[in-house]
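Run log, item B.
One chain of 107 residues. Sequence copied directly from the ordering sheet:
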Amino acid sequence: MRIVGAYTETHTFAWGWSTHPAGGLLVAGLDTLRVFGDVRGMDVLTTTDWKASVDDGWEMVAVAGYLLGCQGVYRADYDDRFWFMLLSNWRQSRRGRTSPGGFTRDT
């Protein structure tokens, strides 16, 4: 699971690299989006935060999912934000259930 960004009640979308500046696994690979945005002149991919709608959040997580090759996207409501995330590394468990992030659920 990686955090792409968050949409707030102030109608702003903030990229994961700005909400989690320490980096790490939660935002791994998001620098690829900034490079893609720089090369193609797409300011929404390079600007830390900007006025947006919830639909813009879905579009950003869709673009991120496509460019980073994820297997799914998710939006979680937490605090005053909608967090948009990428899901990857799905695999089959011993009992045939599929789980995200390399975790298996055997119950």
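Observations after the first pass:
- The chain has one domain: 2-93.
- The chain has a mean pLDDT of 83.
Flagged for discussion on Thursday.
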